[in-house]
Specification:
about 160 residues; alpha+beta; 2 domains; two-stranded antiparallel sheet; 6 helices; about 50% helix
Length: about 160
């Protein structure tokens, strides 16, 4: 801290160490007050579109992999990409063998699934995932059609 007390800015903005403040030199506070950071340039239309599309993709992925509650029985199903693959495999087995059943670990704990239940879960997860991609596609079209940065900023996943 003692060191900083003897540091001054020259008129060119160079840091220099002096015993006392010389004429024409600035303290850090004086320098910052007289040389504020410039406001960032607003994004171009293309930059805003690229940023918004990335934001929408991230929101879709979060929604897609955030899980789904199966209507009617309140079972919460993980929809991570890994879980989607496991559900697909179980659904394939249930399609091949209608007597197939398994104990499935849900976010509520283990549940005994019959072949019919496995297929219902697979359909529900598939519908959830597809709805997320459909929402991303709809929002992406709005972004691409936008003529101003303000129109792009108005597009949100929650909206």
């Amino acid at each position: 801290m003692e060191y900083r007390a003897n540091v001054f800015y020259s008129q060119e903005g160079n840091l220099e160490v002096w015993e006392t403040k010389l004429e024409g030199y600035f303290t850090e506070e004086e320098w910052q007050a007289s040389h504020p950071e410039p406001e960032p340039e607003p994004p171009t239309l293309e930059e805003a579109k690229i940023a918004k599309l990335a934001e929408i993709t991230a929101a879709r992925f979060a929604a897609e992999t955030g899980g789904v509650v199966i209507n009617g029985n309140g079972i919460s199903i993980d929809t991570s990409r890994e879980s989607q693959a496991l559900i697909t495999g179980a659904a394939l087995q249930a399609t091949i063998d209608s007597a197939y059943s398994c104990r499935w670990k849900t976010t509520n704990g283990f549940v005994e699934f019959t072949s019919e239940m496995i297929l219902a879960v697979a359909v529900a997860v598939r519908q959830h995932v597809q709805a997320c991609f459909d929402r991303e596609a709809d929002l992406s079209e709005l972004v691409e059609a936008a003529a101003t940065v303000e129109e792009i900023e108005a597009v949100t996943w929650a909206g």
